[in-house]
Amino acid sequence: MKYKLIILIFLLTSCAQNYSNLKPNKSYISKGFAYIYNEQDFIDKIIKKKLDNNSLQIAHNKIRPGSLIKITNIKTNDSIILKNSKRFEYPDFYKILITKPVAEEINLEINLPIVEIIEVKKNKSFVAEKTKIFKEEEKIHSNAPVETVTINNISKKQKDKNKVIKDEFYIIIAEFYSKNSANLLKKRITQELINFNTKKLYINSKKSNKITLLSGPYNSINLMKNDYIQLKNFGFEELDISINE
Questions:
Q1: Domain edges within the chain
Q2: Which of 32, 133, 138, 175 has an alpha carbon 20 to 30 Å from 54's alpha carbon atom?
């Protein structure tokens, strides 16, 4: 406990990471994987509450119900703003729980549901967009599927197949103004987390005003999950995920 307190003080005084989600007047911002709702998970008691998987519904474990949340597909930049339907717990690795229609609305890959979520503070600039989205939400029904027709350039599609780039994921542990601080935290993790693959720890200083301690790369979500959970148990409350850093 004493050690975790030292770590917490160290992070708060040395880190440049965005802790805005802990302040009541700031918007919650986070990047990571969305948990796509499945009725069987409720039956198996993995999650404690139900959502309507035929509607645009979301649930978050920190943001209060009724709050507006913008969900963005990091790979395609498609986004949607919805009211938080419920607040309840789901597996800690995930950043938000969404229904399948939400995933489809932002063209989210089921096997790669990486998103950015931002709590939207209610003000006049969002009224028009909010109204539009809620009207769209009312139209969605399981008996009224939306069909689209696309015309593909076959020769272009064939070329794209030969350019398959594997995605790589990184856990953003902390951001600093000082490289010495980043090295100190890296050293602490190496010494204290005995089962952690510390070879994956590295410091990215590409941005002139920001030094980032990362863990990665990972080629699959499952490989990342174990390290993510270890870091959370170590004392980090909020860990973001980046792709192709």
A1: 18-148, 169-243
A2: 32
